[in-house]
Recover the amino acids of this structure.
């Protein structure tokens, strides 16, 4: 329809009908069982827009997708604000699965298990789904797990990280165009942290670039982003017509993160006489298991990722626990890991980021080398760099318990952002928060969960990074 | 439903022509599954000779599989297996990403990433 204007609804069904009287008690959403009191709770917690109330209270999220209850919810909001909120996009009623289908279990997404799944269960782990995998959330005491990392040595299962091998005569050209950092100057045996951007300059994923030889690299990605990253790499090889082979090793190699000030001591006991220095990597046998040893740090302490064949993982895990027994070794789960990373202000792409997050908004311009003539996203970053930005991912500190992740951030009576990560630091004794500010001028003090919070530079812990390099 | 056992072999990504001409060796029978034109999983292989200096050759411990009657596999898929033999089919089995190797003896090797093995086995019980 050349020349046609925007599509508009027509007919009786598209008429904006009068809203019913605002509900004052009882159930508002029959599908989800949401009551007027639930709406009030959501409102009191700062969720004062239709989309936020919907997500917070679950109203309109059931089978009818708001077909029956949306007018009631809009009327309830209108009664409080004197403004009738626009309805959200109409969707057809969803279909709930039958009990028979649920029993057959084939309509449920399959979640992957690492080779250490049974070891985690035997150690009393509470397992949770994360990034398409079952992962240990904690082993009963996340704070003790945290201290094991900060003061001794701990191991964590990071088998879920994406792992890609790329090899070929054009591999440097591929990676130079794919990543916003320099790649050609990475020497074999060394590695570099990198963001992965799309054409709009938005952060898609992050990980490490590890060079094996002149024409072979290993790339790592986040657990949840690995599958997309692989497709992304393959697509661009095709588009640019490059001669590069790709092998996804995500489910063939497991990985154990050995971290803490005594990590190198443990690895020496396991047979690694000369552990790599920071951002170095090498191949070696650890406790008799062939490993790709990578020295990096997400926890803020010295850390070595041991990538190894999945069929040797249990053997390696048990050996490390045994060799580190007198060092007080204990495994750590995701809860401790998230707290540790939060103290360092490390971003978790997908959890802290939004679909249009740029390096500048994250405060990560240092990861982008604009002097490079070409990389995906460069043009967009160059254009938007001239514009004032209205969003910033920031650190905050406050007294008392950590607020709930997702909490609104307030300033002068308005919601100006939200919390993406929070943790009460056992070491620093305050609540540490990472979150977004979306109003300029950016405030220096805000209110979260009814309490004052102060904008604080990150990293909160060891800002010079001495401990990770020790 | 028999247990899904770990499959071991070599995984090779190389130029398709080099893979076509590759020579595989192992202590027993080698079964080469061509997962893509440039990607092969050779079950039972411990060595390969091929003409591609940039080939990626790695031991592959990441698959688990079991031999089943073809009819039993068909019971758990919502797509049609190829009628040609031998054939390699790839798709969802009981809604789990999997592959089916079909030689010409009425049996099928159902294989999936080891990370999915427990989930798939529980759905086929």
């Amino acid at each position: 329809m050349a020349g046609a204007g925007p599509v508009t609804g027509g007919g009786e069904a598209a008429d904006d009908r009068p809203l019913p009287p605002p509900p004052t008690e009882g159930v508002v959403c029959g599908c989800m069982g949401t009551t007027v009191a639930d709406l009030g709770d959501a409102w009191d917690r700062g969720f004062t827009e239709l989309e936020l109330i919907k997500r917070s209270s679950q109203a309109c999220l059931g089978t009818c997708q708001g077909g029956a209850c949306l007018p009631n919810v809009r009327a309830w909001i209108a009664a409080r604000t004197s403004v009738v909120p626009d309805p959200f996009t109409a969707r057809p009623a969803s279909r709930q699965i039958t009990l028979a289908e649920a029993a057959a279990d084939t309509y449920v997404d399959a979640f992957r298990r690492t080779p250490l799944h049974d070891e985690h269960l035997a150690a009393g782990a509470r397992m949770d789904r994360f990034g398409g995998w079952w992962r240990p959330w904690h082993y009963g005491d996340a704070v003790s797990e945290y201290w094991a990392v900060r003061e001794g040595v701990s191991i964590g299962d990071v088998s879920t990280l994406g792992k890609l091998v790329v090899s070929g005569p054009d591999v440097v050209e591929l990676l130079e165009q794919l990543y916003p950092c320099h790649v050609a100057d990475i020497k074999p045996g060394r590695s570099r942290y990198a963001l992965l951007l799309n054409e709009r300059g938005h952060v898609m994923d992050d990980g490490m670039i590890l060079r094996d030889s002149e024409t072979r690299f290993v790339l790592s990605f986040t657990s949840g982003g690995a599958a997309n990253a692989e497709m992304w790499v393959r697509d661009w090889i095709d588009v640019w017509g490059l001669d590069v082979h790709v092998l996804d090793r995500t489910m063939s190699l497991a990985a154990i993160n050995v971290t803490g000030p005594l990590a190198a001591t443990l690895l020496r006991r396991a047979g690694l006489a000369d552990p790599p220095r920071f951002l170095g990597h090498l191949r070696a046998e650890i406790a008799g298991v062939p490993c790709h040893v990578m020295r990096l740090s997400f926890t803020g302490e010295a850390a070595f990722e041991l990538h190894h064949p999945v069929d040797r993982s249990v053997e390696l895990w048990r050996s490390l626990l045994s060799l580190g027994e007198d060092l007080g070794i204990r495994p750590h789960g995701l809860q401790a890991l998230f707290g540790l990373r939060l103290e360092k202000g490390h971003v978790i792409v997908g959890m802290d980021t939004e679909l249009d997050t740029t390096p500048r908004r994250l405060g990560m311009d240092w990861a982008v080398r604009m002097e490079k003539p070409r990389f995906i996203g460069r043009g967009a970053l160059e254009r938007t760099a001239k514009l004032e930005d209205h969003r910033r991912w920031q650190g905050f500190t406050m007294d008392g318990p950590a607020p709930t992740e997702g909490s609104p951030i307030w300033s002068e009576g308005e919601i100006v952002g939200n919390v993406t990560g929070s943790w009460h630091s056992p070491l620093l004794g305050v609540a540490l928060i990472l979150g977004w500010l979306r109003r300029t001028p950016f405030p220096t003090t805000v209110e979260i969960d009814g309490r004052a919070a102060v904008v604080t530079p990150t990293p909160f812990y060891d800002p010079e990074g001495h401990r990770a390099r020790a | 439903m028999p247990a899904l056992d770990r499959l071991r072999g070599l995984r090779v990504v190389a130029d398709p022509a080099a893979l076509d001409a590759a020579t595989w060796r192992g202590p027993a029978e080698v079964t080469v599954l061509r997962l893509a034109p440039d990607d092969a999983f050779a079950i039972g292989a411990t060595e390969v000779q091929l003409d591609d200096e940039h080939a990626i050759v790695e031991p592959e411990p990441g698959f688990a599989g079991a031999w089943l009657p073809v009819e039993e596999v068909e019971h758990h898929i919502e797509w049609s297996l190829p009628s040609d033999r031998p054939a390699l089919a790839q798709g969802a089995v009981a809604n789990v990403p999997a592959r089916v190797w079909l030689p010409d003896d009425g049996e099928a090797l159902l294989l999936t990433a080891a990370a999915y093995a427990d989930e798939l086995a529980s759905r086929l019980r």
User: Anything to note?
Assistant: The two ends of chain B are 6 Å apart (CA to CA). The interface with chain A takes residues 6, 8, 11, 13-14, 38-39, 54-56, 58-62, 76, 94-97, 113-116, 118-120, 122-123 of chain B (CB under 8 Å). The CA atoms of residues 1 and 27 of chain B lie 28 Å apart.
